Amino acid sequence: MTSTAVIIAFALAMTASVLGVMIWKALDAKRAALASGSADIQNLAHSLAEHAAHTIQAVDIAMAGMVDLLKYRDPEPDRFNRYLAETAKTLPQLRGIGVADAEGNWKYSSSPEIPRHTISDRSYFAYHRDTPDNALQISELPQASADERSSIVLSKRITRLDGSFGGIVAAAVDKDHFNRFYRTFQLGPDGGISLIRNDGTLLTRWPQSDKSTDLSKTDLFRKHLKQSSVGYYKIISPFDAIVKHLGYQATPHYPMVVTVAMSEDWLLSEWWKGLRTDALVAGVLLCMILMLAALLALQFRFRSKTERTLREREAHYRLLANNIADIIILIDARSLLRYVSQSVEPVLGLRAKDLIGKSCFALVHPEDRESVMQATTRLGGIGSVSTVVFRHYRGDGTLAWVESKFKLASETSDPTQTEFLCVIRDVTERKRMEDELTQLNRRLTQLAATDGLTGLTNRRTFDSFLRREYETCEEISVLLFDIDNFKGYNDTYGHQAGDRCLQAVAKAIGSATSDTSGLSARYGGEEFAVVLPNTSEDAA
């Protein structure tokens, strides 16, 4: 085939390739953008469902304790009102909490003044009055006042000892507690987050909408929730009639559903930007094909010379790599070994050709794989070096401690093209000596702090502990005592019996103070001491 035919074939092949890649990349990028958006929406729906459940659960737990208390007694109003106010202050999601009697009149309240209106006409009050069920009731938003419209009402029934209705504990959860959290997420100009009761009643939505709060006739409640408590599908929003992708998840333990919606235009906005850029790049590439075709002839001429030069350089580098004591390896972005120097055989007893194409973690001890992986993520640029020491299997199955220095082989913006250069050195003997030194230092520290005969802390440690606790404690007690007639006992029965006596007394002292924050010590001879921080004289 002549050079002209080769150039024409090259130009046609390049044009077809550019257009093919352009179309494939656009379709794949769109699929990836929607898939990424789907994952983000579903993950966010899951997180918000957990957030909503925990928000309600914290109030539920507090209310359950109050219900149990009110079942058996009627607390003193001033004290119980202060307890309610402190509970509302502790839980930031609460606007207020109170107790109504069996007639619907407020009996206790976290507010400075107990409300005078009755709640006997409220649906949640009637539900608890007529239903002997102690489960938490999450009510639709009441419409009595502007203040109540911004709250979600949680209520629990109070059942007297005889089983009769004793009133309710009701708490108002601030809608803004959810909305302040929801608005921190970037969902696009048409995105939204909704918290819905499982009967379709909208409890809160961000951003707010003046549309109907009854969503029971939407596909979510008529179809999808009946099939699964968690899901993802495409909708036309009932709030603004925009095509959106919606993820939903029912909250654990409570009858609520969280939905997260993002418009399709928002999900594909970056894709459209990338598509325009790709189209521009494709146009430039097509224009450059003619120039490349003209240069192709020159490339034929210089190709042979370039290949010969590369072969010579590669042979030179391999000669250097194979004749040094350290092991040199090249790892690609998939953690696969692309090159291993021949020095791996004398150092680790492995053959280089058997390792090519395998994962670099295949021979790393399982407990050290995470630290090796983190060493590559710490690399900041082409000049940075990351060092890690880990265990590596030899060819005979034994373990060797090695020190590995990682650095980037080349600078690239494409993560899939990243390569790492790694220099490995056997440091088994050094690690053994370091471990022995650490053990010796630990033993010396222990011996310096304890009395050799009794096992209690020695006088020096006692003085240091007493000085430190005296400076920090508001109150401290010190017990000093000795063994009566010990010299006569020692002279009569001998020093070995005396030593056993000291050890028995020390054991009793150590056992008596083992579960305290105090310290027991041998003060000297047959004298002992105990330091009890934050302990009064009578308690000591």
Automatic annotation (TrEMBL):
Residues 313-374 form the PAS domain. It comes from the Bacteria. SMART domains: GGDEF, PAC, PAS. Residues 474-540 form the GGDEF domain. Keywords: Membrane, Transmembrane, Transmembrane helix. The keyword Transmembrane applies. CDD domains: GGDEF (cd01949), PAS (cd00130), PDC1_DGC_like (cd12914), PDC2_DGC_like (cd12915). The chain crosses the membrane at residues 279-298. Residues 386-439 form the PAC domain. PROSITE patterns: GGDEF, PAC, PAS. PANTHER family: BIOFILM ARCHITECTURE MAINTENANCE PROTEIN MBAA, DIGUANYLATE CYCLASE DGCP. This is Diguanylate cyclase. It comes from Bradyrhizobium archetypum.
